[in-house]
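Now for a chain:

_____
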Amino acid sequence: MLALAVSMYDEVECMGKNLAYWGSEFEKIAIVQSGLEPYKEIGRLAMDHPACSYTQFENLDKRTDQSDTAERFDIGARAMSRNFSYAFKEIGGLDQEIGALRFIVGITGDTQFIHLNGIRRIIEQMGDADIAVSRAMGQSFHRASLTIEQMRGDENLKRGRVQDESTGDFMPQLFIARASLLDSLSHIVVTNRWCFEQCLGDAVLRAKRYVFSRTAYGFSDGIRYHYPSPKGWKHVKCLIQNDKD
């Protein structure tokens, strides 16, 4: 049995296509949206599915300027930690008999499914791993110790969390977890308010991982990343630059 956990903002067109074309492939779906106003199309498609929850939470983004270039800082880490945690809780609660549930696919709202063959292949290749992830090896993320003043300063000073074998960070745009990690992923703690990738990785730090891509968006078998958002939002928070550059 396959389930889908989604953290979204305003990516209605992308999620509408995912639900319309591929919703029936998932036994359970949990969509958690930042923003209290539900989208009619998402609500309608959710109701058409036998086991789909669609939840809205308050948008944490209170800035007057919400343009694509405006500062966001810790909004993404806090919102996605909340949203994904609730989505995984919902997956566990949609049906009391979750014994048949094997895998949960996690995506952000701007990840589009073109087909699901690539996801099926990842599952086949996982072996006994608990979770399949993509990483950004060699890149440098925002470190947790940064102050708000430093975040407003020189871009080069924001580096410090190099992605290598000593860190567990992984990308939230696409990951696949066994049902055994439901509890861990239902309690994602904000361990780095500037970098959700660390929060996500820390939640399952002891889990055995299968890395299906060593670059952030290197896996593209049936997946399209960063589907255009009406407000220009992208679920990319802390990717700075390559240490080799």
